[in-house]
Amino acid sequence: MCVRGNNARMKPVPIKTVMKPFPYSIQIDAPLLQARKMMLEHRIRHLPVMQGHDLKGIVTDRDLKLLLGPELGSPDPVGLTVEDAYVEHGFSADLETPLAEVLAYMAKQHIGAALITSHGRLAGIFTTTDACRHFAEHLQPGVTSDEAPQRA
Q1: Based on CB atoms within 10 Å of each CB, which residue in 82, 91, 100, 108 is the most buried?
Q2: Domain boundaries defined on the chain
């Protein structure tokens, strides 16, 4: 999406304008059940994975379901850590990356979240839910997710 300036030229919208800054994150050696608890408590599906202050990847609710599901024999989650489930080096983009580039890559690769970085450090997260919210606001300025129709 772009914004028209006074001279009618299209100016790319950087991802930093629509990302969620300072997302919840989890340490790589944290218990897997802690990741699940955080996701449920905060109603999120993606957690950046950190080792100290270094971004290592991402763990999603889908990663947890696949690891703990019947395909792998439904292992006992008590001894598992985030490291057992996370995706190393998840998709990341710099704060200044144009939104259109991030959206195109996410769509092409079927990715649900982009980790947004500044100088190699985690600065935010952008998910498909954020994309839907931004698109709804673009189509109908002032609309909020609170106004969306409820599920039947």
Answers
A1: 82
A2: 12-141
